[in-house]
Amino acid sequence: MSSTTRTKNSTAQDRELDLYFKQQVTQVSRHNEVERILNAPKLDPFSILLVPDDCDEKQIKNAYKKISILIHPDKATHPKARDAFEKLKAAQDELLNEKQRKWLQNMLNDARQLLKSESPTELASKDFEVAVRNKFRELLIELEWNRRKKARIAQEQQLAEAGKKEAEAKKLTEQKNLQKEWEDTRDSRVNSWRSFQNNASSKTKKRLKTKTSTNYTQDPDRPYIKRKL
C-alpha cells in the first residue's frame, strides 16, 4: 500500500472519529440542556429561557429558538426531552404574554426591594442578583401556595353546596314520590274504608237482631233478673 493511500485512509478515519466525537459532544450538550430545563423552577420562566429580567419579545423568541433546536425530541436522545421541550414552550408563552411578563418583572423588583430592606449590608453584585432570584422564587411559591389554598377552599365549598343541593333535591323527590303514592292509593283506601264500614254495619245489625229475638224469663221473687229461655 502506497503512502498516499495510507494517508487518505488515515484522513478518512480521522474525519469519522471527528464526526463521531462531535455527535457525542452534541448529544451530551443536548442531554445537559434537557436536565437544566427539567431542574429549572417552573415558576421562573426567565431562568428556563436564560433571558434577562428586562427582556423583550425579540429576546424571548430568539432564546426559545436557540434552545428548542438543541433539545427538540426529534434530535435529543434524552428520555424526557419532550417534557423539557413542553416546559420551554410554556415558559415562552408565559413571557410573550405582555401582561404576565410585566407582572413577573414587578415581582422581581419587589424581591429586590425586600432584600435591600432585609439585608443590613449591601451584597456583592453577583451574590445580590442570586439572592434576588431566590427571593423572587420564594414570593412566587408563596403566591402559588395561597392560590392553591384558596382554590381548594373554594372547591370544598362548592362540593358542600352541591351536596346540600343534592340532599334537598333528594328530599323533594321523596316528598313528591310519597305524595304521588298517596294520590295513587286514594281509591284503594276509600274502598277499604267503605268495605270496613259496611262490614261493621252488618255486624251491628246482626247483633241487634239477635238481641231483639232473644226471649227472657223473670224470676217472680227477683223481677230485676232476666234469664234467657
Automatic annotation (TrEMBL):
One Pfam family in the UniProt entry: DnaJ
Positions with biased composition (Basic and acidic residues): 162-189, 219-229
UniProt-annotated stretches for the region Disordered: 161-229
SMART domains linked to this entry: DnaJ
Top-level taxon in the UniProt lineage: Eukaryota
SUPFAM superfamilies (alphabetical): Chaperone J-domain (SSF46565)
Composition bias type Polar residues, residue spans: 190-200
Protein name: J domain-containing protein
